[in-house]
Write a structure and sequence with these properties.
By secondary structure, this protein is an alpha/beta fold. The chain is built from 6 helices and 11 strands. Strand 1, helix 3 and strand 2 form a beta-alpha-beta unit. Bound molecules: S-adenosylmethionine.
């Protein structure tokens, strides 16, 4: 959970240079390549719905979203008032509609932490995919890529707000822990707070097993220098 930092999410990733416009160009192309007639999309773990906003505006896709965090959903609803955005845990969600494409971007799947819950999350995402639809999942880092002791700092510096987020990463029992220390200054004052995010480190084999258990045929793509450089899974229902 992003707990205290939801309102700084867009500012932080803009400052990091995360290019949602380029991602949406690539994502829309992937959706069309694998399902030419797709018009409806559910974004699971949609966060502040920047993908949804751009996919609707520039690619004519009707995008809804879901996220476990009510504060993220509040921002999403403001950003995309014409969409439907539900507070829902991807492990158990049932939002009562199926889509041509279900997508889950920027490692939201990692937050379910355990392999068992990842299997359940893929199953519940699969339930929201139409019979001829596709499921696209951008994973978190693989176990061999995440470094115990890794030290990171991100900053944003705009008129009226300065922020700094430092993390020292740890790994324990296959779970990565990001210990974030935030300092945020505005004209009103300066606040500091800590946030701990825990994400499961799943191998490609684990993930493919998860899709298989959900009766989906999946392929893994490296996506070098595209999206967050973390790869992508594209899956469809196995024939009955
Ligand atoms: C790194 S953010 C990605 C947000 C958005 N997809 C993007 O690309 O900017 C991960 C998101 O996953 C959400 N999340 C974490 N656990 C979840 C769960 N069990 N079910 C649904 N969403 C979850 C978080 O609240 C957060 O908004």
């Amino acid at each position: 959970m992003h707990r205290n930092s939801q309102k700084y999410y867009d500012l932080l990733y803009k400052a990091q240079g995360k290019d949602y416009q380029a991602e949406c160009t690539d994502l829309a192309a992937l959706i069309k390549e694998h399902h030419a007639a797709a018009t409806t999309v559910l974004d699971v773990g949609c966060g502040t719905a920047t993908h949804a906003r751009i996919l609707r505006d520039d690619f004519n896709l009707e995008v809804d979203g879901s996220d476990i965090d009510p504060d993220m959903i509040a921002i999403a609803r403001q950003k995309v008032p014409e969409g439907t955005f539900d507070v829902a845990d991807m492990v158990t969600m049932d939002i009562g509609r199926q889509y041509d494409a279900v997508v889950s971007m920027f490692s939201a799947i990692g937050y379910v932490k355990t392999k068992e819950r990842m299997f359940d999350a893929i199953k519940s995402m699969a339930k929201h995919v139409k019979e001829d639809g596709i499921l696209i999942v951008e994973p978190w880092l693989k176990p061999d890529v995440f470094t115990h002791g890794g030290l990171y700092m991100d900053t944003a510096n705009e008129d009226g707000i300065k922020l700094c987020r430092i993390s020292r990463n740890e790994v324990e029992n296959g779970i990565s822990r990001l210990n974030f220390h935030w300092t945020v200054g505005t004209t009103v004052g300066i606040e500091t707070f800590e946030e701990v995010l825990e994400l499961g480190l799943f191998s490609i084999e684990d993930m493919l097993e998860g899709f298989n258990a959900a009766n989906m045929q999946a392929e893994h793509f490296e996506m070098e220098n595209r999206f967050s450089n973390r790869g992508m899974y594209i899956a469809r229902h196995k024939p009955a």
